[in-house]
Amino acid sequence: MSSKANNNESNDAKAGAIRVYGILTKAQAISGSMFACFAVLHGVEIASGALGGATANMVLKELRPIYQNAFFENVFIGGALTVHLIAGLGKTIVRSVYKLDGGHALGKLHYYAGGLLVPLIGFHFALVRNTPRDWGVDVDFSIIGWGFQNRAVITGLIHGPLLLAGAYHMLLGAPLAINRLLPKSVREKGTRVPSPSARTLLATTIGLFVGTFVISRMDISKAVTDYGAIYAKVFPF
Prior knowledge:
The chain has helices spanning 3-47, 53-67, 70-98, 105-135, 142-150, 152-181, 184-188, 198-216, 224-234. The protein is mainly α.
């Protein structure tokens, strides 16, 4: 086979890989936008903690029915996260095999932040949703307050990076996802959703941390036995 034929095959393969990469990117944009519906609601709940633990639980009680149902959890949370993760892994493989450009530094940080979120979200979900649901225990933000007051190290190691990586990954990722989903006619006009400013990132992160700090100091007198057992199940070390 001639060198020219080999080059043509290589170019065709790379062009196909680029098309696949584009499809995976679109899948990430759609799934990320779906999960953002939950992330915004949960972020409001956490930030409301700045007004007190009781206020945070009141907001949680009002908003939780929106996302804590079989359809929303299976489609907008579990399904969206699964698609987002698989698409991200697929893009990593395509980039590695076909030596595609990995993007600018912020893009790489976005990628690493997303990778860090995978185990953190898993631990958080097991702690506040999966295990309590399996055991028939009704929990609110006091389970996080209990953790900070009784299992401070592991609670902080999970939720500190979760807030930081989550705020960074989602605030920077949301405009990218929306822009990729805009109709071609709109994109051709130069219409784009701008990335958040450093001030917006800082304000959002501070709001989440202040809310979490106040929640960490809330009264946790109820269900202490259940909370201790849940933490022991999720973090048996």
